[in-house]
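Dataset card, provenance and construction

Sequences and ligand SMILES were collected as paired inputs. For each pair, a complete structure of the chain with the small molecule in place was predicted and serialized as structure tokens. The example below shows a pair involving flavin-adenine dinucleotide. Curators did not alter the output after generation; any descriptive sentences attached to a record were derived from the structure itself.
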Amino acid sequence: MAMNKQTKPESPVVWQASDAAEACRLKQQLGEDGVFVAGGTLLRTWWEAGTARMPGHLIDISGMANMQKPIVLVSSSHDRQICQIGAAALLSEVRNDSYIRTHYSLLTTAIKNIAAPSIRNLATLGGNVLSRVGDALPALLVYEAVLLWHDGQGEFQQTLAQWLLEAQVSAGWKNRLLLAIILPPVDLPEQEGYSRLDVYHKVGRREVFTPSIATVAISAIVSSVQHIVDVRLAAGGGQTAPKRLEHTELLLKDAKLDRSLLHSCYTSVMEHFHPIGDVFASESYRKKTAANLIVSELWKAMQPKA
Ligand SMILES: Cc1cc2nc3c(=O)[nH]c(=O)nc-3n(C[C@H](O)[C@H](O)[C@H](O)COP(=O)(O)OP(=O)(O)OC[C@H]3O[C@@H](n4cnc5c(N)ncnc54)[C@H](O)[C@@H]3O)c2cc1C
């Protein structure tokens, strides 16, 4: 372990852990006064805004080799490829990865919508996930991402959806190190006559960093006779932790895509999506934005192909 003692008394002491077990050990020793840091882009905004205090110690994980890999492909038992993204992979690297662009295009689009290139060259996917409101989350939820953690004793996996629920009620996860984000294989439509609808939208003010009004990710397979074979929806925005819209998915799955379904879909999102309102946009405005984004994409899918 290397320690870089800063000269300014108010600056935190920075520790560079060589592996996950050491990083977790440091965290256990330092308690709340020790914080994991990857790109530091979000932590810095919290300190500057006064929403978090600068800790006495930072545990720098950005140099841990196996956590920086944008992707590693692992074959599953059915000989399909599982994609593992290192938690400390830079957003810019993940965005530029051709495998991710081909198989998980919603993630590529989501990252394109995060901050400016200078930030994406420092910020990591793990930091975005652990912010709990990062713009990558709706895309990762739609892909049913799994988180690979180290808790000091060993590694374990947890679905992203489960962790988002856990994080609402407990801060225990802050003692764990996120090693990687695992993406299960995506089913590409193999049969003639099926088309895939993959859409990610972020609505917000882009010029400066203000939280988005709504972020929506849709992944669906629609047959040539407008039958929705499969559908996954996730929405977030602002300070709302993104979530899957399971009620609306149930309504859409196996249904015929027509005007009356669009109407029911709008009503379902309005009923089951509960974003947090703030000074930029009320809860109702955010709901309507998310509902309109989803319905307008389904409407586009209904139009005859040129
Ligand atoms: C100007 C600006 C614009 C931005 N715009 C956007 C935007 O449009 N959309 C958006 O989603 N975000 C935005 N952000 C927020 C931020 O840049 C991203 O969320 C980024 O991905 C955070 O990654 P990081 O590596 O910098 O995280 P850090 O700041 O290093 O860490 C963030 C949090 O995660 C924890 N952490 C990080 N990695 C791990 C790990 N592997 N294990 C355990 N804990 C860990 C840290 O302790 C901290 O609590 C913006 C930030 C700035 C400064």
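Derived descriptions for this record:
The two ends are 61 Å apart (CA to CA).
Residues 35-43, 45, 61, 87, 91, 114-115, 119, 123-124, 126-128, 130-131, 134-135, 177-178, 209 surround flavin-adenine dinucleotide (CB under 6 Å).
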